[in-house]
Amino acid sequence: MDPQTTTPGRSCCEEFAQVGLSRRGFLGGALATGVATTFGSTVVQVASAPQADAAPAGARAVMVVLSLRGAADGLSLVVPHGDPVYAQARPRIAVPADRLVAKDAFFGLHPALSPLLPLWNGGRMAAVHAAGLPAPNRSHFSAMEELEAAAPGSSIRSGWLNRLIGVDANPSPLQAMQVGEGTPPAALYGSQPFLSAGNIENVQLAGADQWDTHRGRPRSLRTLWSGQKDALGSAMQAAFTAVDTFQPARTSPKEPHNGATYPGNSLGRALAQVARVVRSGVGTEVVTVDHGDWDMHTDVGNLDWGMMKRNATELAEALAAFFADLGALGDHVTVVCLSEFGRRVAENANWGLDHGYGTVMLLLGAGVRGGYHGRWPGLTNSHDSDLLVTTDYRSVLAEVVKARFGTSTAAVFPGFTPSRVGAMVGQ
Predict the structure, then answer these.
(1) How far apart (Å, rounded) are the C-alpha atoms in residues 166 and 410?
(2) I need a surface site. Which of 131, 196, 223, 336 has the fewest CB within 10 A?
(3) Which residues of 68-77 are buried (b: 16+ CB within 10 A; e: fewer)?
(4) Segment holding 76, helix H or strand E
């Protein structure tokens, strides 16, 4: 699908429109690696019995992986105004240099990211430009799978986050979870347990509702499985423990703390729930959240209108509210924003951008060394020009993993030797 064919009036390629269904089909097969138990709209994938964790709120390091689905244009989010080709290649959609925020001699942030300036000015937000996959891949579905497996050329059939939690000898089903709408990412799938919840209030046993006044249904389920010692019985017992352990998060107050106000979109709702999970101290260390649609073949727009202004505003407002809500707990939370690939350098005829290669990664919160990072490759202005990748995205993730969890990256990114990026303190 290269070069892309763009149809006026369509903001999304056919592949991305279907990618949700395609990913569900792929991930359905991945469930065979463990036992999936469904409670209402919640899925608990369990491969081993959980280990209870009574750590107080904020004691654990937490990493939130926020996926910008659809291939976000890093050149619009973090603008290389110092490269003259940028403005030449985008006569209608280039962000004017005099409107950028957090501007230095070469880079600046899209003004819609202004809500994040307190984090940036406090040295708690970093941008790693020209980052991405080791080789171009313009297919949403294939690129997502490659990005989330993070083991190219390997026979390993698990995601990098599943391997991360697998470093623990006996990980809990609550150690990693997906929050919000959509399918859990392939990064979470593998032999280790994790929790997926569209709404954290739904993390309960099926039938445990207002009509079960005597709590008979959950009691019957526990009795039924209490004597089973096979794999399914062990999985059910682990799921019962997970539901019980998650109770403080499920019943926690919904009102944000510290006067935070979340936007009323899906990202805002998801991050509000993540803040409740962090605050409840149930032992969750890895959380994934999705935000889309960033597949802007048309209507990227400018500073007055368009999809880029809308999406960047949603992203910034939700993240700003999240860190305000967390308050001092934000000192334990690191957010990683990444996308499967970027967009072309030159705009197309429909005020849009077709599939490209390199993009930008954003890091926010605990352990982040603020500022602009990465090696700039320079831009060229032609129909098929890409932002080339000079930083393998795994090098960025490896620094986060090592800095926040003290974990050897060899098990998480097999066969890969990270290059130093310097976006995390001590790395």
Answers:
(1) 13
(2) 223
(3) bbbbbbbbbb
(4) helix 74-77
- Beta partners for 101? 109
221: tokens are 């389920």
CA atoms within 13 A on the CB side of 50: 29
CA distance 109 to 85: 17
Q: Which two tokens stand for residue 16?
A: 């991305």
Distance CA 5, CA 297 (A): 9
pLDDT of residue 11: 53
What's the token pair of residue 69? 């689905």
Q: What is the DSSP letter of 170?
A: S
Measuring CA to CA, which residue among 246, 70, 288, 50 is closest to residue 159?
288
Determine contact, residues 70/295, Cβ cutoff 8 Å: yes
Question: 225, 212, 179: which is closest to 198 by C-alpha?
Answer: 179
Q: Which runs of consecutive H residues, i.e. helices, occur in 226-364?
A: 231-245, 247-250, 266-280, 307-326
Listed residue (315, 340, 314) closest to 140, CA to CA: 340
The tokens 């064919």 sit on which residue? 5
Q: Please, where are the H alpha helices in 343-421?
A: 393-405
pLDDT score for 355: 98
Q: Are 108 and 81 a contacting pair, CB within 8 Å? A: yes
Task: Work out the pLDDT band at 382, boundaries 50, 70, 90.
Answer: very high
d(CA 108, CA 86) in angstroms, rounded, equals: 13
Indicate the CATH number for domain 14-405.
Answer: 3.40.720
Do 375 and 399 contact (CB within 8 A), yes or no? Answer: no
Whats the size of the chain, residue-wise? 427
Residue 40 confidence (pLDDT) above 50 = no
**Beta bridge pairs of residue 128:** 361, 373
**CB 195 within 8 Å of CB 71:** no
Task: Return the residue matching tokens 């982040």.
Answer: 368
- pLDDT(17) > 70: no
Q: How far apart are alpha carbons 302 and 281 in whole angstroms?
A: 42
**Per-residue pLDDT band at 352 (split at 50, 70, 90):** very high
**Domain range summary for the chain, segments of one domain joined by +:** 14-405
